[in-house]
Amino acid sequence: MSYCIKRSLSPLSESLLLDVLFEQGFALELISCELTDIENGLKEVSETRYKQLVSLYHELNQLEA
């Protein structure tokens, strides 16, 4: 399964999307799903990106605690 989305959102739209992800509590879930896809071999990313996602997951998890 391959995911390819062309980034075409304005900075304002990107900011609004992030606000909604945080307000609705989906940010942590989204990162968790991304990590699961990577760990199950459904997505390929560099080791650097994987480590960044793991770090982001832990940071978001601390915020929700």
Q: Quick check: average pLDDT?
A: 89
What is the quaternary state of this protein?
A: single chain
Secondary-structure element order, as H and E?
Answer: HHH
Which structural category do the helix and sheet elements fall into?
mainly alpha
How does the major sheet shape up? none
In whole angstroms, the N-to-C terminal distance is 33 Å
The coarse overall form would be globular
Instruction: Kindly state the percentage of residues in helix.
Output: 55-70%
Number of strands: 0
Please report which band the strand proportion falls in: under 5%, 5-15%, 15-25%, 25-35%, 35-45% or over 45%.
under 5%
Specify the number of helices: 3
- Could you tell me the radius of gyration in angstroms? 13 Å
- List segments where confidence is low: pLDDT < 50 over at least 5 consecutive residues: none
Written account of the structure:
By secondary structure, the chain is mostly helical. The protein has a domain at 26-64. 68% of the residues lie in helices and 0% in strands. It has three helices and no strands. The protein has helices at 11-23, 27-39, 47-64. Helix 2 (27-39) runs antiparallel to helix 3. The N and C termini lie far apart (33 Å).
